[in-house]
Amino acid sequence: MSPTSHALPAGAPVAAPAATEPALAHRVSRAVVTVRGADGAPLADADVVVGQVRHAVALGGIGFDVVDLLDADAHDPDGPGAGAPPEVGRRLAELFTEVFDTATLPFYWGAVEPERGAPRLERLERAARWFADRGVRLKGHPLVWHTVTADWLRELPTDEVERVALERVRRDVTRFAGLVGAWDVVNEAVIAPVFDNEPTQNGITRWFLERGRIPVIRAAFEAARESDPRATLLLNDFNMGTAFECLVEGVLEAGVPVDAIGLQSHMHQGYWGEERTTAVLDRFARYGLPLHMTETTLLSGDLMPAEVVDLNDFRPSAWPSTPEGEARQAEEVVRHYRTLVAHPAVQGVTYWGLGDAGAWLGAPVGLVRADGTPKPSFAALRDLVRGEWWVAPTTVRTDADGHLVLHGFLGDHRVTAGDRAADLVLDRAGDAVVDVVLR
């Protein structure tokens, strides 16, 4: 049940505390909860357990390792979206929900449908249900992208590319409606029409080049919206400059149904720092849409040289995690998440890789080493999001009127007494009064 806005009753007695600080006041609610039995009467002078289930801000990671773990025979360490080998994947699956409450699944077209007409969606559905059974929210990435796309599109005329691409959007979003709640609908559109890193032009690049960015984006978003009106639809990019700002402005002026802006921060060349991160968030927040940091990474090894322009161009033969780098990463990941969550426009953060095994570009970006052992950054982030920012299951006693106080971060909570329970959602900051009925 969600809070209603009323004056707080005087002398509300018991608190299940969460740490607060001025920068996070917009993320915290102080709710006086009246706990009622199934008959509607207040549950007076009773011991109940109050605990948080997940944050309102989607704090996630990529779920590629679980996809491979549940389909071990199909594991390809060099394939698109490849996760860790099964022996490490099992450990990563165990660790995932200790930190994250949201998972991004790999819907790369080239991996989903390498042969036209034979999509491999069952393995993604298995993984999606595995996460959903554990209360983890899901996002699909990506629906339209010029990279890791289906090779067979190259042979098709542009009209046919457009037709089958939109059919693919409708097929995947419809199949996963109610299971996958958010999608990176179009990924990296700024560079898409001029992408030239392949021997021959791929079909999606040609579609962007011949039709233009905004018409392609409009068509993809409208197809996704028709297929699942409840889904959160993102326009995602790594370009944090004026080119993406101009594209966002054009897309919104054209009335494209974008729900959120996705921003990437692969910090292979060093931590951005609070000032730069906040400046980026401020520039994109002015469009009035929620912001998701869809891909964020911090290294626990040597940094990529500053002169490298395209991160894909740096591929050392070995890129190990180091003790010095791990200490740096642990400090920086906490600073980064504090900065992101302090910004009122941010509604999602996705760390791009729980483990080093199978990490993008082979970089030591994971919170867990390639052998499955956690780095200091894992404990640091866990202690922040599931410690300082969390209401752990806490036994409290209601007063004579069935009241208790829940002082916690916005998100989903649960109240239990014996074998009865009730869900409680804190969905706005400040003081509130809430009634819950145990059933």
Q: For the largest beta sheet, what order do the strands appear in spatially?
A: 4-5-6-7-8-9-10-11
The CATH H-level homologous superfamily of the largest domain: Glycosidases
What would you call the structural class? Answer: alpha/beta
Q: Tell me about the largest β-sheet.
A: 8 strands, parallel, barrel
For this structure, what is the CATH class of the largest domain?
Alpha Beta
Strand content: 15-25%
Rough outline = globular
What is the number of strand segments?
16
What share of the residues lie within helices?
Answer: 25-40%
Indicate the CATH topology of the largest domain: TIM Barrel
Low-confidence stretches: 2-17
CATH architectural designation of the largest domain? Alpha-Beta Barrel
Compressed to H and E, one letter per element, the order equals EEEEHHEHHEHEHHEHEHEHEHEEEEE
Q: Quick check: average pLDDT?
A: 92
Domain GH10: 82-384
Pfam families: Glyco_hydro_10 (PF00331)
Catalytic activity: Endohydrolysis of (1->4)-beta-D-xylosidic linkages in xylans
EC number: 3.2.1.8
